Amino acid sequence: MLLEQPARAQTSSWATRPITAPRPVHIAIAVSAFVLATTFGAYVAIPLPWTPVPITLQPLFVLLAGALLGPRTGAAAMVTYLGLGLAGAPVFAGGGAGVAHALGPTGGYLLAYPPAAFVVGWLAGGRDSGTGRLAAALAVGLVVIYAGGIAQLAVFTGEPLDRLLVLGVAPFAIGDLIKILVGLVIARRLRARTLAG
Question: What is the pTM of this model?
Answer without folding.
Answer: 0.84
